Every structure is written in structure tokens, then in C-alpha cells.
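Quick start: what a row looks like.
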Amino acid sequence: MSSELRSRKSETATEAPAQTPTEAESDTVTDEVTKEDLACDEGSNDGISLLSRKYLPKAGTKGSNVGRRIINVYQKLRKIKPRAFTSYPCKPCLYTHYSNRWFSHAEYHLSADSLKEDIDSEDDKHDLSSKIPSGTNKTPGVLNVILENVPERWRNWTIRGIFTCLLIAVFCLTIYGGPLALMVITLIVQVKCFEEIINIGYTVYRIHGLPWFRSLSWYFLITSNYFFYGESLVDYFGVLISRTDYLRVLVTYHRFFSFCLYCIGFVWFVLSLVHKYYMKQFSLFAWTHVALLIVVTQSYLIIQNIFEGLIWFIVPVSMIVINDIWAYVFGFFFGRTPLIKLSPKKTWEGFIGGGVSTVVFGCFLSYLLCQYQYFICPIEYSEKLGRMTMDCEPSPLFRPQEYMLPESVSPVLRLFGFKKSIHMYPFVLHSLSLSLFSSVIGPFGGFFASGFKRAFKIKDFGDVIPGHGGIMDRFDCQYLMATFVNVYISSFIRSPSPQKLLQQVFTLKPEQQLQLYYSLKETLENQRILSGFE
């Protein structure tokens, strides 16, 4: 077929230049175009190629009736909706040689597929619910048998309850494993969340097998983790790492190496650009970076919170979990008033009930954990012990203090025999701020995720956890909470740490350490601080 087409082209090329037909000529074009007049090229996609001038005649011009007749024939054979011929180039499939001179010089390609795929538009984004698996519809076979005759409402309640208990058990075991186990779990959750988000991007933009694009997304994930986790290692383990000669280079030039790795990925992306898919590729490039911002950056902040003390990780995470559980319980039994259109099942009753439960639970858990050094001490490297340690002298934040109650409540307190003051850990007061944020602002992380899923008509991010959905469905609020906790610590809690400054001193060369010592000694003597200890 292709050879026949080329021979026809060569014949027309040797002929005298075709003259533009008159209006009468264009009106006398054969009305009958049969199926035999059209030949199909089996090796290509659904489409049509017409031997014509550069473009088919536009509506309202001479010869436009000819173009309309061909459109009608094509519609009958291929059963597609009418679209403008003059705007969409496409792949060749169905070839015809129309006898009129008007179509004797060039090819024009039209394809039903290209009308959708060659133009980057919002029309590409169809219902993805059949392509993205739903975790809330996935149930283990044993539970299906047991809950076969249970009403759908209580069936979902039971499945969610069982797997919620399993998730809480895994969380407790991870805490028992210590900081290292928590960091490993954080990394695993991060990778899985990134995979779920990026897979939606692949499905939405249908990358058509573009070379290296999946590899690029995962390369940027590795690069981002190298930078952020490297920053944590340098910050907390810098002294230990610097003692090894070949690792000292990685500590000294960590940011430079990170930038070089990113530049490699950037150049790789530019070289992988393919004509006609620029918009899709740049959209996926932006999609990847937004996913990295949401997932990797927040994971880095979670690691920072862990190093400040396990209590700064356990309490906020538990608050989000408790808020989610009790909001579901109150909404299930008492929910009547819709809260927000993005999540029709969320109710004001569940929102308020979950908020009150979170505040009460947060204060109780904070008071309990403040009594144990294991949870309140920051994780630091001890030069004296030569290892990481969680032993410390509790800071004032975790020492009981007496607080005088307002005079306005004194009569009530005397009536019930209470004192005018109470003893409380200052951290419990800070936990009120955390619980208010987790119960009022935290749910909006879930609403944001709900809006995202509605935009692409999917129910869940994945099907990893039966009754719940994907990993991202469980951690959408956690990432927002982790950011708030990190900002809260930096703004209201953190103070300069002598131990941390000492670690930085140990990274200096011996002569620099001596110079620092003499300068510090001279300053202290001038301020008469040192004389008081002699």
C-alpha cells in the first residue's frame, strides 16, 4: 500500500502544476464515494490520509462541499464524531486518492486517536476509578466469608476497625524498636506515598512509553533523599563521619554533590524531551517535583522531630490517629450535619467529637510520656561515650511546675476542696496547641487529599490497607502535622544546645580548636565570668 502511494505521488509530481478548480468544477465532483474508493493500511493506527493540497478547504470556501462529503464518508466508516479537519495532523492509516485535481499535491492526515492524544488538553483526564485500585473495596477472603451476611454499613465498620487495631499495633512495635526503626518506617512510608502519587500522574498523562520517564521520577526521589537525609546525618553524626578520611569529603561537600546529582537529572530530562509530548513531559516533571515537596520534605521534618525527642513524634502522630478514629465513631453514630462538600461523609458531629477527644487524649498521653527519659531526651552523639545517646538532664519543659489558677475560679475550687494552684508539666500546655491544630487544621489535610482524588475521579490512592485505601490515604494529615510540629519547635521551643555546638567544634582542625579556646577564654575573663568559677 505504501509503495502504491509513493508511486502515485511521483506521478503527480511529474505532471503540470494543478490549477485551482472553478466553482463549477468543484460542484461537479463525484457525489458517490464508495468503500472501494478507500484503501486501508493495516500496519498503522485508525486514521485517514487524503492526497490534497496543504489543507482541506475550510468551510465557506470553494471546494468546501468536497471536504464535507469526505468527512461524511469517513464518519460512516469509522463512526466518530465530526471534528475540524484543518486543525489536527495525525498518523496515516486509511489512504484515498480523490480524482479531483484539488487533492493532487500533498498529504493530509487525520486520526481519531490523534484528536485526543496529539493535543495536550484537559480532555485526556478521564475517570481513573477503573485504573487506580480502591483499598476500601479490597477485603481478605477470610473476612469476606465471615462478614458475608453482615449489612454493608457494619461490614465496612468491622473491616476498618480490625485493620486500625493492626496499624496501631505495628506503630507500638516500631516505637519499641527505637529511633532507628522509626526512621526506617518513615522512609518506607515516604517511598510508598511517592509511588502512589506518581502512578496517578502516569495514568492521567498516559506517557505513551516515553523513554526513561519513570526512571527520571525515581532518580529525583533518590537525589532528594540524598540531600535531605544527608543533611540530617551531617547535622547529628558529622563528628563521627568526619573521623573517616574518605567520608569527610562527603560531609564537607555534601550540598555540592547534591546539586550535581540534581543537575544530572535536569539534563537527563531535557535530553529525553520528545516532539509532540512536550506539554505532557513538563506536566509530569512538575508533578514529580510537587510529589517530592509533599512527601520527601515532610519526611525530613519528621526525622528532625524524632531527633528532638521521641515525644515530639509520638504525641502528634497519636493525636492525628485519635482524631481520625473518634471523628469516624461520632460521625458513624451521631452524624447528621454535613461538614464540607469535598467529603460528604464528614459531619459536624464527627468533627467536634473528634476534636474534643483529641484534646483530652493529647493531655493524658503527654503527661504520661513526660515521666520517662526515653521519650523526652533528644538524640545526640556523645563524644565521651563514643555513641548516640538518649540520656540527659530533663529540660524545664519536662519538669513539673506549679501554676496558679485564675482568681475568678477560686470560689468554685474552694467549693469542691481543690487548691488554688496545680502542678503540671509545661509540655502538657504545649500539647494543647498541638491538639488544637491536629483537630481543627489537621483534617484539612484530608480534605485536600479528598479534593485531589475527586479531581481525578478516584476513591483511594491505592489498595494497600483494606478498609482504608493506600498509604497516602492514612498519612495525608500526618505530613501537615509534622510540618506544624517542626515550625512550633523552631519558633517556641528550641534553644542553642551546648552539646551540638561542641560537636561542631570537634569537626575543626586542632589549631582551629586551640584558637577558639583562647578566644573564648579571653572573652569570659573580660566579662569576669570565668573568675567566678576559679
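That is the whole record. Residues 213-242 form the longest helix (30 residues). The CA atoms of residues 112 and 137 lie 35 Å apart.
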